[in-house]
Amino acid sequence: MSNNTKELEEIIEKLSSQLANNIYDTIKTLQFSLDLTERYYENSHSRYVGELSGKMAKLMNLSDESIFEIRTAGLLHDIGKIGFRDTSLFKPISEMNSREMKQYKLHVEIGREMLYNHKALHGVADIVYEHHENFDGTGFPEKKQKNQIKLGARIINIVDFYHNAMHKTMKFDNLSDISQKTNASDYLQETQRKFDNILEYLDSQKNIKFDPELVHLFIKLAESERKKIEGYLVKRIHIANVKPGMIFADSYYSSSGLLIANKGEVVANDTLKALYRCVESDQIPQKLLMLADNED
Ligand SMILES: [Fe+2]
Ligand SMILES: [Fe+2]
């Protein structure tokens, strides 16, 4: 290889890693803004939708690029809600009047427009734009149907519905009770009926709201994700005893509303450092709700 070619390759590599870092920083910035708008959600909806949508893409053996795009679109699917001045637009769709509904529907267009500002996020923007399209053509904004809807958007539609349905129940009935439980299987048992009902609903909406093949795949994924917490105990653990590898049983936020640790997330060193800072300034309690196995 001539010196010139080598130099050129080095330049390209440097530029592309700079670009990758740049995209990553942009996504982080957007996620930060979204975390702030979502601080009223107790279990960080967007992160969950991003993570599970990425898992779906992975299960389908899609390319790394597609997995990244779908995961990012899941994470940012509701970014357009940042444009809402009216906080009443964060309530359930069923409680909205027609004026609110009209405004609410704009979030997919606002989201696409925001993300179009970054060339590398055009693919993500197009998925975000379609995440409320239904398989039978009854969704919005363009009433697209079946394979006209981007695969990523069909995936996100399912994960988004699932998390909203599970989340609302947990918020109002069970989430606050989890601190009283000592056993994750008690918690699983209590939420089992809701979980089954949601899966049943997803199944009944095959070919209507949702892509039938994706529903099938998602049900398997949701069941296996749920099994993961079997055998764990939910414990209140002093931060000094929280170790990397444990799992958060609740989400923790700074006093400004920034998400520090996400429910279901594995403890990492960086997260622990941020938690220590928050505990020291009394922003969060010293004892954290964790999923830990019996020996811990
Ligand atoms: Fe949405
Ligand atoms: Fe959502």
Describe the structure in your own words.
By secondary structure, the chain is mainly alpha-helical. It has two domains: 3-231, Hypothetical protein af1432, CATH 1.10.3210; 234-296, Molybdopterin biosynthesis moea protein, domain 2 (Alpha-Beta Complex), CATH 3.90.105. 55% of the residues lie in helices and 6% in strands. The chain contains ten helices and five strands; from the N terminus they run αααααααααββββαβ. The protein has a three-stranded antiparallel beta sheet, with no helix packed on it. Strands 3-4 form a two-stranded antiparallel sheet. A hairpin with a 5-residue loop joins strand 3 and strand 4 (259-261). It is globular. One fe (ii) ion binds at residues 45, 49, 77-78, 160.
Give the helices and strands, then pairings.
Elements: H1 3-37, H2 45-59, H3 64-76, H4 98-105, H5 107-116, H6 122-129, H7 151-174, H8 184-204, H9 212-227, E1 233-238, E2 247-248, E3 252-253, E4 259-261, H10 269-280, E5 287-292
Antiparallel strand pairs: 1-5, 2-5, 3-4
Helix pairs in contact: 2-3, 2-7, 3-6, 3-7, 5-6, 7-8, 8-9
Bound molecules: fe (ii) ion (2 copies).
